[in-house]
Structures are given as structure tokens and as C-alpha cells.
Input
Amino acid sequence: HRAYLDYNASAPLLADARASVRIESARVLGELGATNALPALARARAHDDDAAVRSEAAIAQLQLGDAAALDDVQTLLRESAGEATAASVSRHASSRRSAATRPVAMS
Output
């Protein structure tokens, strides 16, 4: 399975010293549908020092079907960005989830 292979490559990046790498890793894992990454994403959501990493991990968990992350996503967004930005980010996450389900043309 492609998601399994990508999980093996991407999940260790959730522990990278650079927040930007951890953020991108969480995003990719969610977009790939790597459900086997849920435990690593849950750890990042609960323990990462960077609020953006925690937010992205929670969004990825939602993409993977873990509804338990919904309250955390809403709380993190309100705490870090205020209500107006939270609504904007929620719309962005929704459009990303839609994009992740579109078929990809293979050449």
C-alpha cells in the first residue's frame, strides 16, 4: 500500500527539530490517508511545543477519520488565531479534504 510506504517515510519527520518539517509531515500524512499514522499524529497533537504543528496534526487526524480531534482543532484555532482566523482555516482545511479525495491523473 502506498500510504503505508509514505507513512514509513513521513512519520519519523514528525520528530524533526524543525517545526516546518513537522507541519508538512502531518499535512502529507493526512492527505495520503495514512491511517496507520494516527498514533504518531495523536502524539504530535498532544505534545508538540509548536501550536502550528499541533493544529496540523489535529487537522490530519480529522482527514483520517479521527473525530476525537475535532474539539482540539476548534480549541487550538480559537486559542492561536481568534474566531475570524479559525473560520478561515476551517474553510481551508475543508477544501484540502475535498482536494485529497479528487482522483489524480496518472501518466
